[in-house]
């Protein structure tokens, strides 16, 4: 802040007929300090002190600043000059703010409901400029619509805001894509009728069910699952995605609980029936040491030991481990296989998959247009690397999970090699031998929001469920603990996690099982001490 203050003084000069004059500090100092306080509150509500100073540097301000300033407010950067809202993109970004400022997520959920078509599919992205609020693209990308029920359940589970389900929101109306159309860029109409957020989420789930499954019982790839570059795998309507199947399973597991609370027994039973069927199909995509990525329209497998390209894809392994009731042995084995084959510790990169698409006969889509080892084509796609870290924490591989998180930090890379900003997370890092370790897109990346979640929830173990805080750390063996200072609206929460003989969870000296954030009223400081067995 001192450096910023000096910089502001230098900039605030006025050049006139009598030469350069400095503006009176009384005219700008107050709004300047107000701006600093606002951003400190938004970007650094929790201040962490861990044994990893590089991790502290990123978490204590830069991470959430990257999420809020670049991803949510500007929606643009040097490498991504768009300004559009992405249906799946900003929903995921707001998940990082659930614990500290959940209003962002609530507003984005309502915005996304308003960009869902009557049929249940959604705009992949859209611009909100002037009077035109809906100019965007309708696609056959298969995962977009499911991020609505996924994010909605995460929001409710964290905040306990059940009233959002009754909010009334319009949807979009427009001619559905024709059989030969993969996408259409146009301005749809806003439907006059409104329906509840719960109905919007149901509409997305039923649309996903309506698309059906492929020959192997997996969700269909469409014009790309999370990896948009795989737009040719299921273009003819037969290709299947293992990752999308795991993601759908997780979404249905969570939404069934929402339906239970709504006393919607029919939906709860439907979700659980589909979830069990899909989970069984995904389990059968086991290739001996890890899960396949899916199948092409032709019936040829995507991934596996016999594939010449993309033998192992990290996201199929990560989300298998993040699924409830997964075969624990397979889940851990899949994550271990991903670590062994995708984590190049020497170069400090975690590949999205390997080998990259280059000269093989299969055509997965425009992903082949990238040089092998660049961006999605076998480079490090940081978004997916963070998911792999989360999976490590889920299966008890805390050392590997922490090592991934540390490796992803800009400070972990030599500047002369990395060549990207040293203070924000890069969206991708090249694994191509010619530019090994070089940062690609920076600033505009969904990896920042997921990184905050992986570090705070996965590594440090801070979880909130309906405003009740529990702490279950997954610390590496070399850590004796960590501390955090959380500035809340009604007071300050001091958290100290340390190894020692004393076990328990203490609030103001009293043993408790968790802490309700509702209890933190008045101008006082509460203290939580978690003591871990050595």
- Total number of helices: 15
Low-confidence runs (pLDDT<50, min 5 residues)? 518-525
In terms of quaternary structure, the protein is single chain
Instruction: Indicate the mean pLDDT.
Output: 90
Terminal Cα span? 39 Å
- What fraction, in percent, of the residue positions are helical? 25-40%
Shape: globular
Rg from Cα: 24 Å
Main beta-sheet strand count, sense and barrel state: 6 strands, mixed
SS elements, strand count: 26
Report strand %.
Answer: 15-25%
Order of strands, main sheet, comes to: 3-21-22-26-23-24
Which secondary-structure class do the elements indicate?
alpha+beta
Q: Can you summarize this structure?
A:
By secondary structure, this protein is of the alpha+beta class.
């Amino acid at each position: 802040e001192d450096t910023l203050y000096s910089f502001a003084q230098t900039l605030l000069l006025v050049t006139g007929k009598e030469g350069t004059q400095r503006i009176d500090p009384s005219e700008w100092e107050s709004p300047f300090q107000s701006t600093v306080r606002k951003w400190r509150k938004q970007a650094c509500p929790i201040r962490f002190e861990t044994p990893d100073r590089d991790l502290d540097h990123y978490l204590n301000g830069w991470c959430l600043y990257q999420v809020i300033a670049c991803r949510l407010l500007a929606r643009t950067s040097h490498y991504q000059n768009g300004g559009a809202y992405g249906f799946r993109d900003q929903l995921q970004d707001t998940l990082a703010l659930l614990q500290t400022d959940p209003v962002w997520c609530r507003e984005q959920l309502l915005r996304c409901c308003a960009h869902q078509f009557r049929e249940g599919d959604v705009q992949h992205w859209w611009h909100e400029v002037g009077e035109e609020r809906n100019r965007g693209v309708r696609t056959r990308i298969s995962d977009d619509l499911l991020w609505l029920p996924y994010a909605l359940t995460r929001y409710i589970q964290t905040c306990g805001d059940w009233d959002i389900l009754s909010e009334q929101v319009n949807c979009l109306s427009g001619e559905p894509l024709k059989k030969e159309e993969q996408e259409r860029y146009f301005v749809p109409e806003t439907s006059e009728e409104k329906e509840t957020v719960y109905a919007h989420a149901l509409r997305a789930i039923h649309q996903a069910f309506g698309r059906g499954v492929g020959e192997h019982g997996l969700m269909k790839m469409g014009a790309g699952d999370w990896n948009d570059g795989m737009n040719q795998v299921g273009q003819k309507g037969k290709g299947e995605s293992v990752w999308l199947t795991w993601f759908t399973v997780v979404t249905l597991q969570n939404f069934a609980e929402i339906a239970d609370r709504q006393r919607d027994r029919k939906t709860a039973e439907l979700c659980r029936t589909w979830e069990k069927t899909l989970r069984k199909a995904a389990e059968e995509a086991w290739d001996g040491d890890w899960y396949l990525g899916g199948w092409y329209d032709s019936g040829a497998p995507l991934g596996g030991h016999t594939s010449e390209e993309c033998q192992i894809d990290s996201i199929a392994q990560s989300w298998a481990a993040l699924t409830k009731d997964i075969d624990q042995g397979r889940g851990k084995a899949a994550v271990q296989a991903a670590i062994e084959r995708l984590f190049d510790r020497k170069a400090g990169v975690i590949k999205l998959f390997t080998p990259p698409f280059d000269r093989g006969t299969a055509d997965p889509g425009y992903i082949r247009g990238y040089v092998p080892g660049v961006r999605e084509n076998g480079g490090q796609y940081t978004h997916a690397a963070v998911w792999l870290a989360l999976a490590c924490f889920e299966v008890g591989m805390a050392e590997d999970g922490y090592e991934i998180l540390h490796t992803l930090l800009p400070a972990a890379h030599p500047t002369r090699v990395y060549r990207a900003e040293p203070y924000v997370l890069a969206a991708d890092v090249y694994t191509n031998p010619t530019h090994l370790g070089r940062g690609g897109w920076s600033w505009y990346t969904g990896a920042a929001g997921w990184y905050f979640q992986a570090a705070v929830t996965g590594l440090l173990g801070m979880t909130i469920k309906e405003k009740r805080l529990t702490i279950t750390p997954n610390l590496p063996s070399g850590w004796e603990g960590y501390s955090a200072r959380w500035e809340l609206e009604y007071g300050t929460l001091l958290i100290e996690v340390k190894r020692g003989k004393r076990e328990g969870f203490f609030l103001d000296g009293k043993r408790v099982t968790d802490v309700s954030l509702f209890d933190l009223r008045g101008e006082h400081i509460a203290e939580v001490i978690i003591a871990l067995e050595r």
